[in-house]
Request: fold
Amino acid sequence: MNEAATSAAHPAFRLEFDIDVNYGYPAGGWLIGLSSSHHRDAHEGWESMTEFKLFDFDSHYYEALDAFTRHVDPALGSRGARFEVVDGRTRFMVGGEINRYIANPTFDPVARPGALHSWYRGNPERKSLREAFGDLEPIRPEYRDRDRRLEVMDEQGVGATLLFPTLGVGLEEALKGDPEAAGQVFSGFNLWLEEDWGYRYQDRIFAVPTVPLLDPEFAHDELGKLLDRGTLVVNIRNAPVPLPGGGFRSPFDPLYDSFWGLAAESGVVVATHAGVEGYDVIVNMWEDSTENSIFRSPLRGVISKGRAVADFYGAAICQLIFERFPALRMASVENGASWAPDLLHRLEDAANRSPGYFKTEPTEIFRNHIWVTPFWEDDLASLSDVVAVDQMLLGSDWPHAEGVEQPVDFVNDALGWADQSTKRRIGRENAERLLGVQIP
Reply:
């Protein structure tokens, strides 16, 4: 990823834009209503470049306006998350305050998928970020309707996909001071997700529920409920757990062993999708970053790019979570993979300086337990010298603006160096093996 990042890597663009111009979070569509310069035939595009249907390990929906209230007790009131009209605009209120993680939380209008493709490729046209987004579009049915989404997936050559939140990945940080409210909000949200999308819809759409770790007991109980309802993957933050009274706790503290033990025993994959990890506290050591805007100093991206995810998995290995739970499997999603080689080097160095601390070499632990979704702009050919091809998963981030225009573009952009067998593994087979499913 490039210089405009936030603590959440690619999800940088879910922060506040100039409200007067009504820039929503960049998302949109490429199949309908684009000018001829943007439109491509989806089926022709994927079939001409691959001989197999893709398993997209990272795509998104746009939450319905009742996603955070449909199954939440109204008595929670302003402690929860809900939409309200404030000064004539629909705002997303969390914990009684306007949440500015996404400027236009209704997602109507939104930007086109892959609108920032050239901007991420070094911005050769030297456009500002606003210019790079281009025209916004009305929200499309496939962003909120699972049957329409399946039709679009057929056109794109996508056999199956994991679906992650958009608004939802910013909620835990906003509710960190009220673990009880966070539990109610996410329990209700997960019920909405099952109802509208399904955890295993036609064995092609696997919507991923979220488990906040603010309360260890709640995390264990919620995971149990989700397993009973058939989820194959759950999502947590790759971040330390903030405490209501201040300070932090590692998610690998023994207090969470019941959660990790259940995850390991059940075989569920624990994903860590990028979001709001709370790393602004580090940026604030260097500059005033109280302005919630992606148009501020580039120092934020320089400091925080890849840091939260590397810290998280470094802590997981050093705090011996995989030694305590050898069956545990985790997947880093939408964090890219450029952070992995340096982390592995540092872990190897730590092992050399602490003989006997690790029962298994850290690099081997990483390769046995952790999968990654590289960004399409990562150098996967070089990365494959350090991170095994069998650990890599295709993640398009569709339909977000910082992803690709269509999922097959990941193969074209990132895997031009690879033979067909490698493309199949990264583009489909690794995900099938990890989840224990096969594309119909």
